[in-house]
């Protein structure tokens, strides 16, 4: 049987499943899938055949808390009792304080379409407050490119690389977060690959050119490359005249940002800046802006500055050219995600708060009386970890957690509802890189009494007496509705037989008509909407100041072994990945008397963390790297790197600037 991986990953790999022993299945890569080509990444190949099918590791029955919050002491209860108690206590909060006093937080634990979006119908109907999911991850970039290009989810089709001479990867690490795109797309590309990243990743090491700026100086680097492009007469004046607004507002700054100035600001040699301009100017060129790029204090400005390169050179709207941030082709080519998530059930929109202030919001007993956490594990992933834990201990905060596993967040629940894994129900998957839709087939029985997310919230709607038809539509009907919208001419059974299908036979050019969804219909380098949001009217060549002596900038990017914090509880992955580490530049380590393998302590106002030192020359001096994705409860310290994540906002209020985290570093003993 064929299915598809629904993880939060660019690759969206195809999977072939064979029967195993004792009800288990064997999960392998689909050789006919154009991205995975018969292999799965190490993390998923291990976990899908390991912890995801381990009945001892999974949540198998509803649970009620019997001990103090945070200790994870529960007793099994029936679904009937769990739903009745959840409905009663939620309704009590609604009656006494209004529906907005119910808060729900969710994100990308699974990204299959129904499980990812259908539960929102329940909360929209209820009138609950939503923790804006993208605020922890990529919202500043979405907003910035929406101002500039009119959309942030219509990117380039990777198949168009056959017409490209250059791929510029800026602020993404495909070797960890898109390993098949890294190996089977960038690896096969015949043109030049430029990588911009403060870390010398495996992708950067293989690139034709690696630009390694100090964190927070990307806007200055973009302006410096633009200066060199202008000096080479590489600006497409006809394209600019016809399709770009506001160029005159950035040209004076571009003229002053020479490669030598760029070197001074960013640490990137002037010769490398000139080389990057030469490679990109050869065109057509593709720009892949990663989500990590905008997780900085000036993230929105950085995104707009980097967007200058395709706008000024006309590298958009023609074969082999384009931009990509998140390429949600399914939504662009027919799937109605608003309908799937039931936005019409909340005609005035859902009230929202952001992840950055989650701990502070939950501390206030006047604000929220109930919390639902589903498809996410905020105790592992949110800012101010210690403060958040304390807030979740409120006895008057009725907390419901929906998950496949007993995560750190589950330990703070009053009621736990067991979710089925992607192997245990039918759904559809989509990629945010390639324009592919896949069938997620039920290939084994659910473990215990676990249910898909969408079924859990259908039953909860029933328990609360919510009878709108939209809340009770079956999976079969939802899937068929999506297939009809995508106009694939396939039933689910036919799609499942194939495994996957491209949404268009030929490569898609999302900007072929060169009409942009901005107020002017042009690329808006200068934007009134940006000004209204408190940003500068046009991007500027900013660069963060270097840290004071004794202070380090800490980056916490994606791990090779974990997908966010998914798979962190797989024993094989834990053994292979080893203990938590922080990577330190050799010169910095020497100054501090730190040797490879020493226990060191990082500390700031949010908390402290002891990990093992990895002394390696992969970043500029003054920059530390500690990979995200560990469960605090499984670490000797009882914490992960997010215990150091302060509630720092980017230049768009409420959007994470996690890569601006600053710490001190010392030997632990």
Structure description:
The chain has 669 residues and is α/β, with parallel strands linked by helices. It has 26 helices and 27 strands. A hairpin with a 4-residue loop joins strand 24 and strand 25 (608-615). It is globular and about 70 Å long. The model has no long low-confidence stretch (mean pLDDT 97).
Write the layout of secondary structure elements.
Elements: E1 2-4, E2 14-19, E3 25-29, H1 42-48, E4 63-65, E5 74-76, H2 79-97, E6 102-106, H3 113-117, H4 120-126, E7 129-132, H5 139-149, E8 166-170, H6 174-177, H7 179-186, E9 192-196, H8 202-206, E10 209-211, H9 218-231, H10 237-243, E11 244-245, H11 251-256, H12 259-266, H13 270-282, E12 285-289, H14 299-306, H15 308-313, E13 322-324, H16 329-332, H17 337-341, E14 352-354, H18 358-363, E15 370-374, H19 378-381, H20 385-392, E16 398-403, E17 415-418, E18 427-430, E19 436-440, H21 453-463, H22 475-486, H23 492-498, E20 500-502, E21 523-524, H24 528-532, E22 552-555, H25 571-577, E23 581-584, H26 586-592, E24 599-603, E25 608-615, E26 623-625, E27 662-667
Parallel strand pairs: 6-7, 6-15, 7-14, 8-9, 8-12, 9-10, 11-21, 12-13, 15-16, 16-17, 22-26, 23-25
Antiparallel strand pairs: 1-2, 2-3, 4-5, 4-17, 18-19, 19-20, 22-27, 24-25, 24-27
Oligomerization state of this entry? single chain
Number of strands: 27
Describe the largest sheet.
8 strands, mixed
Number of helices: 26
**Which spans of ≥5 residues are poorly predicted at pLDDT below 50?**
none
User: Which strand order spans the largest sheet, edge to edge or round the barrel?
Assistant: 5-4-17-16-15-6-7-14
Overall outline:
globular
**Cα end-to-end separation:** 54 Å
Helix proportion range: 25-40%
Query: What share of the residues does DSSP label as strand, in percent?
Result: 15-25%
| CA-atom Rg in angstroms | 24 Å
Please state the structural category: alpha/beta
């Amino acid at each position: 049987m064929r299915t598809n991986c629904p993880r939060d990953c660019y690759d969206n790999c195809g999977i072939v499943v064979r029967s195993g022993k004792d009800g288990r299945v064997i999960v392998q890569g689909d050789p006919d899938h154009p991205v995975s080509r018969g292999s799965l990444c190490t993390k998923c190949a291990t976990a899908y055949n390991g912890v995801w099918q381990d009945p001892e590791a999974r949540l198998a029955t509803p649970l009620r808390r019997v001990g103090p919050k945070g200790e994870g002491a529960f007793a099994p209860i029936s679904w009937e009792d769990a739903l009745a108690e959840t409905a009663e206590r939620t309704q009590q909060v609604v009656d006494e304080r209004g529906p907005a006093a119910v808060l729900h937080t969710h994100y990308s634990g699974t990204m299959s379409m129904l499980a990812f979006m259908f539960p929102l119908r329940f909360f929209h109907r209820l009138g609950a407050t939503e923790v804006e999911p993208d605020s922890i991850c990529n919202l500043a970039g979405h907003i910035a490119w929406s101002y500039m290009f009119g959309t942030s989810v219509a990117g380039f089709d990777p198949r168009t690389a056959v017409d490209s001479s250059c791929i510029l990867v800026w602020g993404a690490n495909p070797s960890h977060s898109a390993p098949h795109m890294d190996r089977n797309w960038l690896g096969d590309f015949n043109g030049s690959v430029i990588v911009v990243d403060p870390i010398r990743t495996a992708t950067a090491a293989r690139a034709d050119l690696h630009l390694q700026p100090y964190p927070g100086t990307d806007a200055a680097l973009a302006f410096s490359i633009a200066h060199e492009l202008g000096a080479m007469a590489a600006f497409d004046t006809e394209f600019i005249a016809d399709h770009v607004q506001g160029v005159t507002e950035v040209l004076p700054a571009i003229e002053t940002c020479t490669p030598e100035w760029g070197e001074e600001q960013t640490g990137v040699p002037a010769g490398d800046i000139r080389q990057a301009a030469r490679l990109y100017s050869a065109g057509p060129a593709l720009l892949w802006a990663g989500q990590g790029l905008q997780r900085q204090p000036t993230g929105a400005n950085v995104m707009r500055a980097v967007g200058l390169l395709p706008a000024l050179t006309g590298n958009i709207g023609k074969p082999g050219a384009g931009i990509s941030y998140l390429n949600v082709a399914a939504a662009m080519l027919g799937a109605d995600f608003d309908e799937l998530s039931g936005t019409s059930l909340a005609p005035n929109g859902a009230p929202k708060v952001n992840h950055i202030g989650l701990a502070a919001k939950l501390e206030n007993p006047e604000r929220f009386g109930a919390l639902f956490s589903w498809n996410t594990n905020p105790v592992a992933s949110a800012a101010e970890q210690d403060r958040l834990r304390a807030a979740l201990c409120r006895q008057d905060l009725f907390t419901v957690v929906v998950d496949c596993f007993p995560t750190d967040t589950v330990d703070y629940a009053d009621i736990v509802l067991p979710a089925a894994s992607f192997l245990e129900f039918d759904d559809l998957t989509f990629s945010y890189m390639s324009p592919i839709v896949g069938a997620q087939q039920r290939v084994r029985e659910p473990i215990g009494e676990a249910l898909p997310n969408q079924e859990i919230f259908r039953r909860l709607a029933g328990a609360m007496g919510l009878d709108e038809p939209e809340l009770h539509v079956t999976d079969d009907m939802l899937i068929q509705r999506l297939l009809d919208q995508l106009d694939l001419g396939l039933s689910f059974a036919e799609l499942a037989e194939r495994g996957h299908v491209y949404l268009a036979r030929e490569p898609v050019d999302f900007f072929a008509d060169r009409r942009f969804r901005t107020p002017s219909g042009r690329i808006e380098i200068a934007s009134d909407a940006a000004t209204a949001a408190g940003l500068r009217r046009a991007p500027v060549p900013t660069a963060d100041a270097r840290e004071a002596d004794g202070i380090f900038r800490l980056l916490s990017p994606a791990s090779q072994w974990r997908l966010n914090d998914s798979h962190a509880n797989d024993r094989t992955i834990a053994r292979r990945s080893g203990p938590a580490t922080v990577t330190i530049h050799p010169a910095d380590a020497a100054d501090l008397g730190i040797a490879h393998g020493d226990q060191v302590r990082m500390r700031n106002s949010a908390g402290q963390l002891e990990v093992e030192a990895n002394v390696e020359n992969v970043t500029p001096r003054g920059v530390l790297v500690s990979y995200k994705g560990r469960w605090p409860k499984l670490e000797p310290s009882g914490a992960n790197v997010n215990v150091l994540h302060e509630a720092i906002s980017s230049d768009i209020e409420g959007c994470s600037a996690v890569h601006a985290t600053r710490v001190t570093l010392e030997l632990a003993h």
